[in-house]
Structure formats: structure tokens, C-alpha cells
Amino acid sequence: MKKNVFVKETKFKGIEKNPSLLGFGCMRFPTQSKDQPEIDEKQALKMIDYAYQHGVNYFDTAYPYHHGLSETFIGQALKKYPRDTFYLATKMPTWLIVSLDDARRIFYEQLEKCQVDYFDFYLCHALNRSNYKTYQIPGVMDFLYQMKKEGKIRHLGFSFHDTPEILNEIIHAFKWDFVQLQLNYLDWEFQDAKTQYKIVKEYGVPCIVMEPVRGGLLASLSDKSKAYLLDKNPDVSIASWAIRYAASKPNVLVVLSGMSNEEQTKDNIRTMSDFKPVKQDEQTVIDRALKVFLESNAVPCTGCSYCMPCPEGVDIPELLRIYNRYMITKSKMDFKREYERLEECKRANLCVSCGECMSLCPQKINIPKLMQDISNLYQEISNS
User: CA-CA distance, 131 to 140, in Å (whole number)?
Assistant: First the structure.
């Protein structure tokens, strides 16, 4: 295996040996068709093999990714490699746990699906104000601690979507080895990732970064924003600025990227093979580009699809993607064309404002209002 991808020399408490700074997120594999979760295994396998051969050794999946198919695929994809040459992370689906039996059953199911005897990093998934007390159900955390004692979990942590106040509460409620945060140069201030990062650092455990490119949002900036970055360095991708920003934080152990094609995989590896932390003059450029981007009023959707399926069939992530593109480009023609490519049964006008999606959205986006805005915008453009 080639070892091109950068590994931090920093010694993190409780981490015996650091994994690659770039981690492969397994939520956005290429699929066989646009609207289906089935993974294009041939393409995805090429991406996994290329990443592994170039030093990426951290792979992050979860129980619901690709409607439950991600764990099975990554288990098969990594099976040909020696178990001690890669780190595998997956997550307990918090919303499905109502008893100790649920936790036990799902954990052993995950081991079987991933075809491993242990998980290097195991997370309580997507903790927030309303759900973290799931782990106060009698026996659940004791079970996870026992799995760690037996070596079936090497490091126990959680991923988080809420306010710093709630993070501080959760991080002191149990014993953790690491925390996974949404951290990028938009959310550093926008969702106060700065304070969240500080809380994790002061607790004394490393941070694993998710959504460094904000679901692709920070790879598709407005033309004016891109110009600032390209003027500074025309030889690197727009996405690479976001990856490097997150990786430059001293207490970051791994930066996850949910790669969905070979081009993204190769670009990330180029970025992290010759990794250089962001310098002050580069940070100034990022700040300028972000200021211009925020003026476009883009919706902070990461495309995670936690809001799906919609009871009415509305394709929320795709509609927000189309709307964001319009907010950045202001092209009415492109918006109308993309909107009309959607089947009528998936369009914004079908939203009944039930609010179910809002309760599931990690970004706390007012989705029903936006569906109304999108529907109105389409009618306005169509009638003009």
C-alpha cells in the first residue's frame, strides 16, 4: 500500500496510532440510478481501492447510509485487506434504540454486515437535545462499555448536531474517546462550530470532522467567491480549500469526505498527500470568499437526506440543491429547467407543511417555508 496521505504526528490521548488525516465517508457513494440508494459497486470499489492504495485508511459508515447498504458494501470492499491496516467506523442508530435488546441486536448485526470482529471507532449517531437520553436507557451504555472492554469497540464516541450548550451537557454525561463534529469555514461562525471545537478540545479528546465541504456547498460557491480562491491559487480545486481548513485545526484527528466519484477521491488525495495547513494570508482569502458567498443567501443544506423520505413524496434535498444553485447564479432559466426535470410527484407544491422533516434536519432548516418559497418561485418564473 502506498502511503501518500498525510498522518498527523500529534499524539492524541487514548489514540494509540493515528489514522490518515483524510477519512473516506461512506454516505455518498455513486449509485446505480439517481433516485435509488443501490450503490454502483464497480465504481465505488475503484474509489475505495484507489484511496486505500494511496494511504487512506479510515472508513466511516453508518447503519442508515444508502438505506442500510453502505455497511454491507464497505465490509465486502475492505475484506481483501489485512484487518490491522485500516480503521473502520460505524454508528449506533440512536432513533431505533428503545431497549438494551435493540442496542445489542443492532451492534452484532453491524459486525456481521461489516464482516469484522471489532470496530476501531464506534459512535452514538447524531446526538442532540431530544435524543441523547436514549443512552440513559438501562444497560445501553453499559453494553457499549462492555464491548469496549472486550475489544469489539476500540474507541467510543458520538456525532453531534445541536448547540454548544447541549454538546457540553452530553460530553460530560458519559465517558468518550472522541467526538465527531460538523466543522467547516461556513459553520465555524454560522453554527458556532468554533465553540463546539473548543469544548471538545478542553474535554481532552480529539475531534473527527464531518461535512468539511458542507455537503458540496463549499465546492460550488458563487463565481465571485470562487474568483478570490482561484486568484490566490488557480492550481487547486475550490473544495480543497475547505478540506485544508478543517484539517488545519490542531485537535482534528480525521477529516471525513463523503466522496461520490473518482474525481473527488483523487482531488482529496492530492490535497492531503502534500498537506499544508492554511496560512493567515490564505485565511484572509477564505474570509473574503465566504463573505461574498453569504450575500447570495444560499440555504445551509448538506444533502444528508435525513429529512427523507417525505410522507408526501417531495424530493427535499434535490429541491434545495436546485434552489441553492439559483440563489448563487440567479439564473431563472436554469432553475426552471432543473425544476421541471423533477417528476411532478416530487415537486415542492406537494408539501403540506407537516413539519416532520424539520424535526429530522440536523441544520434546523425551515423546510416547509422553503418548499413554499420554491413553489412560488417556480410559478413566478413560469408566468413571467
Answer: 14
